[in-house]
Amino acid sequence: MPGRYYIETYGCQMNVRDSETIAGQLEALGFEPAARAEDADVIVLNTCSVRERPHHKVYSRLGVLGRLKRRRPDLVIALCGCMAQIVGDRVAERTPFVDIILGPRNVGRFAEALAAALASRRCTILRDTTECVPEGLPARRRPGLSAFVNVSYGCDNFCAYCIVPYARGREVSREPQAILAEIESAVAAGYREIILLGQNVNSYGRTLTPRITFADLLAMINAIPAVQRIRFITSHPKDCSEELLRAMAELDKVCEHLHLPLQAGDDQVLARMGRGYTYEHYRSIVRRARELMPDIAITTDLMVGFPGETEEQFRCTLRAVEELRFDQAFMFKYDDRPGTRAEAMAEKVPEPEKLDRLARLISLQNRLAREINEAQVGREFEVLVEEVDEKRPGYVRGRTRQNKVMVFAGDRELVGQVVRVRAIKGHMWGFQGTIVGHQSVPF
């Protein structure tokens, strides 16, 4: 039934990469992308389960699509991703018009699921968390200069609050040869920056024989001539080694940016979360990273209101943020996720207190981010120019090696180039700058 398809992606970069794989399979079958869901013959919702809010968004969206399907019975609707894995049975009961329910480890079987759904006109459900995603799948990558590349699938950490191991299965590392081949293909297609993905990239290689480390993999990728920049997410503090930090410092294409989720600044809270490190251990990693790479940007994830968290324990998180001075942070309040250990924990923090703590944390972090960037005004940065700034004619946008946004005067011909830019104004989100040797008009 080749026609047109439309994909909506919720959640993390891994979901973005999975959507690229689904799109590649659809285009291999002869489908073309549609500009709107209303114009598509196949609609895919690739979903997230890390927090409750994405579930509500997806159910609301399914309500709209259900009305569309009543008008067009031949429309195929697919629910993919973590929500499909965690609550797929519930979705099938609540929205019986959904044709495909596909877990994230089954993303390589989308074409198979589509064929089965078309043949039977019954919901096809594929949610095996033990199988591996096949290598060599077609992909329609998002436009731009950066390509996402998975180094592993799944997670073995089972933090008390986290649904990911239940949604994405146990950790499996990809063979380095397959990763390198995918990167070679991406750079041949014009991508300049490679962003390596894993729930915990630091544990890469533990399922391989012979075993290699993530630092070893970075060195292999660094040796690919056409690769210009290498980034990676996410690092787990308990596995962030001296070897990895040294590799970051010594490999010229690896950018000086480390996303290292702290979650909380109190040891008792960290222990109840099952994080596997203390605050002092985390602080020692940050200190060592800054010793080896004085220009490094450290970003993090922070959670407030974990069950049993007291006001004093929350203040430990505030003190940690003041001490470590993160360049950026993703900040959330705790929500129960079904089936996790934390769901059954007593001493739940009342919602108003969680919201108050989150507001105080955000206020502090936003102030620090602005201070950090304002203190760097006058410095020159290496910037990969990514796009024309649609909000300001005559300006372009790019990112520094520290993953900070830089906006400066320039034309479309600069897109794809690496230029030196001097920061002339600091903002919470990054910098306004001027290309070295040129002049720029301040905001």
Structure description:
35% of the residues lie in helices and 22% in strands. It folds into four domains: 4-126, Methylthiotransferase, N-terminal domain (Rossmann fold, 3-Layer(aba) Sandwich); 144-255, Transcription Regulator spoIIAA, CATH 3.30.750.210; 266-273 and 295-375, 2-Layer Sandwich (Transcription Regulator spoIIAA), CATH 3.30.750; 380-435, OB fold (Dihydrolipoamide Acetyltransferase, E2P), CATH 2.40.50.140. Strands 2-1-3-4-5-6 form a six-stranded parallel sheet, sandwiched between helices. The protein has a five-stranded mixed β-barrel with strand order 15-16-17-19-18. With 443 residues, the chain is α/β, with parallel strands linked by helices. α7 runs parallel beside α8, α8 (242-250) runs parallel beside α10 and α11 packs parallel to α12. It has helices spanning 13-28, 52-71, 82-94, 110-120, 164-168, 176-188, 214-222, 242-250, 267-273, 279-292, 311-324, 351-374, and strands at 4-9, 32-33, 42-47, 76-81, 100-102, 124-126, 146-150, 152-153, 172-173, 193-197, 229-233, 257-259, 297-304, 328-333, 380-388, 395-400, 405-409, 418-426, 430-435. The N and C termini lie far apart (51 Å).
